[in-house]
Write the structure tokens for this entry.
Amino acid sequence: MSACEPNAQRKAGVVIASTRAAAGVYADETGPIILDWLSEHGFDTFPTMVVPDGEPVGAALRALLTQEPAVVITSGGTGLSPDDRTPEMTLPLLEREIPGIMEGIRRAGAAKTPMAMLSRGHAGAAGKTFVINLPGSPKGVMDGLAVLDPVIGHLCEQLEGSHEH
């Protein structure tokens, strides 16, 4: 049963962009938060991919997209440091951007910290897959997921071809 069939279990993937976490310098803290959220929303998840910043993020995204998940969430690599390249790795894979989602996430985050305005993430569709870049901090991830809460089901239905509004 594919993810597009009614009542099918939707699949989701998570990519953590962190050179230090990939090297084992410290444990990733955002992946578990994202996995819990995906599970709460009924997604069956692939194992989290923790990769160094830069091109490995693009490779991980391309690999996940071959599996045709309903959702791919990245965390990290959205700031202004020279190796923060997640948006650059993501944008070429998106067929359609969904700018309102990132606008909502930045607006919600900026209400708590002005630093949220510095996040350069993208959200959009790669085929029938929703792809979003969240910040690398646990609080930033939780804020972003809270914005997605009321729309994720409808968003997936729309990408799967539903015409209901």
